[in-house]
Description:
By secondary structure, the chain is of the alpha+beta class. Helix content is 37%, strand content 28%.
Amino acid sequence: MIDLPFIDAHRQPTVADAAKTWNALVATLSRDLSNERFARLLGCAPATRGGDWSGDLGDATITGFAVTESRRPARIELRGSHHFSRYALVFVIDDASITAESYGEFPGWRGKAYRAMVIGSGAHRVIVRRLLRRIARRAATA
């Protein structure tokens, strides 16, 4: 259950089935979310990647996120926090697309400034759409 304010959602069509898209999601996030130095600077929890992450509930963490819900191969909810935000990223997968839903709260003046810098600037939108395209390409070639 998401208890954070909705930020946005982005959808990417896929040519792969849900199982291949799930595997591509796990592989892509494992590789792309690995900047532990930046995560420590922001005060992310979790700040480091731990173990062999497969996207299952109770599994190891990836940098900045822990799995809070996992329904392989249809849905995964990732949550984390840092000095400026508490956030969730939910991926919904079917045989035709993958959707990323973003949620977050940004308390205090520093949180508001961070939100303006990341969300308001459009950087978040660019990063999420690029991530979804990488997942879809990886799934198509699996």
